[in-house]
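Notes taken during the Thursday session

The instructor put the following on the board and asked us to keep it in front of us for the whole hour. The protein is DNA replication complex GINS protein SLD5. We were told not to look anything up and to reason only from what is written here. First, the residues (255 in total):
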Amino acid sequence: MSDSLDSRERDLFDSATTGDSSAPTDRALVNLPPSGTESDEDDEEDAMTAAEVLKQMNEIWLNENASPTLLPHRDEIVQLLLGCIRDMEENFANNRDNPDFQLIINVHQLEVHRLTYIINDYLRKRLEKIDTYPEQIMLEDKARIESGCNPNKVLLSAEERTYVNKRLLADKEMMDRVFLNKLPEALRTLHAPGQDLSVERVFLQVNSEPVSGIAMPDMKEPDSEYLIDLEPRSRHLLPFLSVRDALEENKVRLM
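Then, after some discussion, the predicted C-alpha cells were revealed:
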C-alpha cells in the first residue's frame, strides 16, 4: 500500500478520535480521488461547506427533537446534506474497484449511514408533529406567510405544505363519508384540537452571544411579565413560549 494511502488512513483515524464530528464528512469529500476535474481549492471549499452543513443539521435535528412544537423548516440544509451524501456515494462508486481505497470507503460508508439516520429522524419527527396538529400548524404557517415574516421563520416546506393539505382533505372526506353527512347541518362543524404551549418548559443553552429581553410570566400576577437576560453558554429551564423567538433566531439551542 502506498505511503500516501497510509497517511490518509492515519488522518482518518486521528480525526475519529479527536471528537470532531465534522472531520469524517470533510474527508469523505476530499480524500478519495475526485470524479471530475475540480481544483484543490474547490475541494477544500466543498469540505468546509460540508462541515458547516453537518453542524447546522445536527443543531436543527436536536432542536426539533427537543421542541414541543414544530419549528420552522430548514429544507435547504436537508437538501445540501443530501447533496453531500450523493457526492460521497458517487465517489464510492467511482473508486470501489480500487483496493487501495476499500478501508476508506468502508469507514466513510458508516458516516453516510449516520447522516442518513439524522435526516430520516429529523423528517420523521416533523411529520409526527404535523400529524398530531395538522390544522393548527397549517393555520400558523399561513399566518406567518401572510404577515411577511422572515423566510427562515416559515413553518412548512413546500413538500410539507402539500402533505398537510392532502392530509386535511383526506380527513374531511373520511369524516363526511363516515358520519358527518348523517348529522344535521348545524352539527357538521368540528373544532380541531389545539396544542397549549403555555404549559411547556424546555431545557436550553445560550449560544455564544448574550440574549436580552426574554419575557417571563409573573407567577404572582398571571397577566404580567418581567424581562430577564441570559448569559452566553448558560443553561436554563424556561417556558417554551418565552424563548421561542430566540430559538428560531438561533440564539439558543435546546437540550
